[in-house]
Design goal:
The chain is mainly α. It is built from ten helices and two strands; from the N terminus they run ααααααααββαα. It has one domain (5-270). Helix 5 runs antiparallel to helix 10 (246-270) and helix 7 (164-173) runs antiparallel to helix 8 (178-203). The protein starts with a helix and ends with a helix.
Length: 272
């Protein structure tokens, strides 16, 4: 699998779009990346079951770089709630390792595709409804945040997303201001991505028929191009988040997610 010009262009456009959305909405871009990387790999001869797994793992790896880029922009504006990051991160690391090193390796790609489609549909619905929390609700204590972090890390590892699809709704549900929730989610993307990538690399050792340029389940050509492009556009999204009507943008993005979720459900169900 070589760096054909068309392939580079496809991956670069994907990186530009997902990087901007990561900064804008606090998502790592996985919900957008996974379906498209699945298509790209499948069109290049990778078996459907393996293509889904590699798309999830490669998507997660790009979040390491997207997170660094977007969190710098948010931190300059003082929007990151580092107190929440410190409490959620330990559970996130534990949940991520369990998900990526254990469960991910055991599940079939078709099952992961179905789970991805269902979860993205749920996340899109939550994003579309934009429900307001009770004014008295607050973030739970340290134990509660550790438990919440474990769930966020575990589910992120199964779908290849940076956790923003859970952490942003969770924090806003606990009356954290939306801009703080988006910024804090960007910071949480880093421990989620690092822990999961370690699991994907280890669990992917010895897997047959991996394409050239793979390290475990990580597809390095895709990682490099998408990471460079997304690193450049994530700060632009973070800047726009403070100036644009995010609630309206979330509904537009949710509509796109429904289409992508339907595609992944179709791929998963047709492969059973």
């Amino acid at each position: 699998m070589t760096f054909e010009p068309l392939l580079v262009i496809q991956l670069a456009l994907l990186g530009i779009g997902t990087g901007f959305l990561a900064g804008l909405l606090g998502i790592g871009g996985g919900m957008l990346m996974v379906p498209f990387i699945t298509i790209i790999l499948a069109n290049r001869g990778v078996a459907p079951d393996l293509a889904v797994k590699m798309a999830i793992a490669t998507s997660m790896a790009t979040i390491i770089f997207t997170s660094i880029s977007s969190v710098q922009a948010h931190h300059k504006r003082g929007a990151v709630r580092w107190d929440i990051v410190k409490r959620l991160a330990p559970g996130i690391v534990l949940g991520s390792i369990i998900g990526s090193l254990g469960v991910f390796a055991l599940l079939k790609g078709s099952h992961l595709a179905i789970f991805f489609g269902l979860f993205v549909s749920f996340s899109a619905t939550q994003m579309f409804l934009d429900k307001k929390p009770k004014p008295t609700r607050q973030m739970p204590g340290s134990a509660g945040q550790f438990a919440a972090g474990s769930v966020i890390g575990f589910l992120s590892g199964l779908v290849g997303a940076g956790g923003g699809f859970i952490s942003v709704p969770f924090m806003t549900w606990c009356n954290v201001a939306i801009h703080n929730a988006v910024a804090t989610s960007a910071a949480l993307g880093f421990p989620i991505a690092v822990a999961n990538v370690v699991g994907y690399v280890i669990s992917g050792q010895g897997v047959q028929d991996l394409p050239v340029g793979s390290v475990g389940y990580i597809w390095l050509p895709g990682l490099v191009v998408i990471a460079v492009a997304s690193f450049l556009t994530a700060p632009l999204g973070a800047k726009a988040a403070h100036n644009l009507p995010v609630s309206k943008l979330k509904r537009v993005f949710a509509s796109i997610l429904y289409v992508l979720a339907a595609y992944m459900l179709y791929k998963g169900l047709s492969s059973l």
